[in-house]
Amino acid sequence: MLEIDRVSKRFGAKTALDGVSFTAAPGELFGFVGSNGAGKTTTMRIALGVLAADSGEVRFAGRPVTHDTRAQIGYMPEERGLYPKMKVLDQLVYLAELHGLSTNDAHRAAELWIARLGLGPRRKDDVQKLSLGNQQRVQLAAALVHDPALLVLDEPFSGLDPLAVDVLSGVLREKAATGVPVVFSSHQLDLVERLCDRIGIIRDGRMVAVGTVDELTRDAGRRLVVTAPSANPGWATTVPGARVLENHGPTTVLELSPSADDQAVLAAALATGPVTEFSHRRRTLTDLFRDSVATPGAPR
């Protein structure tokens, strides 16, 4: 298990992290999301030992992270950290050897990930000659080539086409299935929601929500989508406990308080004429993210 325990960090007068805590269990995909500048990359760099925390602790397998521990971590930075004039295969072999693999094992591992990530035709190319998407694949291979016990990936899906996204998603699921904790950040919230077992949302250096999407939205107001072609605007405002969130022509999206009666909404809609849609809509990660980031005192 990776444990981020009350980690704080300041840069001059700016507080970048303020008591950040979360865990990533063995075999768990943990999505770490937040706006630009919220503290995601700083947290990851502290987990890797690239930065030192002012207070708090990072532990892996119950022990503080040391130099030996870091050799077991696969890290993918948001900014590409590759040697641009080095060939893909040579670079992956070199990086695997830095993590302690023998030359033969390093070659086998490099060839495996080159094939797995669809880089075979580019294995002898200089990295600088690759497209941005293929550079991203090489960066991912570099994080995986030494068979890490923990994966920490900063925006791994950035710049990837849909096919590459599917390949990477499959790789992350496979690694998690072997018991590896996987922590990754991404602005593609639909992808995070689909892939991750749990999610952490950070705002201004503080964790404002941690849990599964279902856990984080369990107590949120229910949402209804109602399409009433003959209704006048504002038809739902008289229903007790109903709040209009969106209007799109004849379609209205409502949020209901826990005490509100959805049948009262249906009756009010039918009173205006035919109703062609009446459905409950589950709150999405995008909804949760928007509310957590924009609303002070959002649920933790």
How would you concisely characterize the structure shown here?
The protein is of the alpha/beta class and 300 residues long.
| H and E string | EEEHEEHEHHHEHEHEEHEEEHEH
Please state roughly what percent of the residues sit in beta strands, choosing from under 5%, 5-15%, 15-25%, 25-35%, 35-45% or over 45%.
25-35%
In this structure, how is the largest beta sheet organized? 6 strands, mixed
The CATH architecture of the largest domain is: 3-Layer(aba) Sandwich
How many helix segments?
A: 10
The third-level CATH topology of the largest domain is Rossmann fold
What is the oligomeric state here?
Answer: single chain
| Overall helicity | 25-40%
Query: Mean pLDDT score, rounded?
Result: 90
Q: Determine the structural class based on helices, strands and strand pairing.
A: alpha/beta
Q: How large is the radius of gyration? A: 23 Å
Query: How many strand segments?
Result: 14
**Major beta sheet, strand line-up:** 6-7-8-3-9-10
CATH hierarchy, class of the largest domain: Alpha Beta
Could you give the distance between the termini? 21 Å
Residue stretches low in confidence (pLDDT < 50, at least 5 long) are: none
> How many distinct folded domains?
2
CATH superfamily of the largest domain: P-loop containing nucleotide triphosphate hydrolases
Taken from the alpha-carbon principal axes, the silhouette is elongated
Keywords: Antibiotic resistance, ATP-binding, Nucleotide-binding, Transport
Main location: membrane
Domain ABC transporter: 2-229
GO molecular function, one term: ATP binding
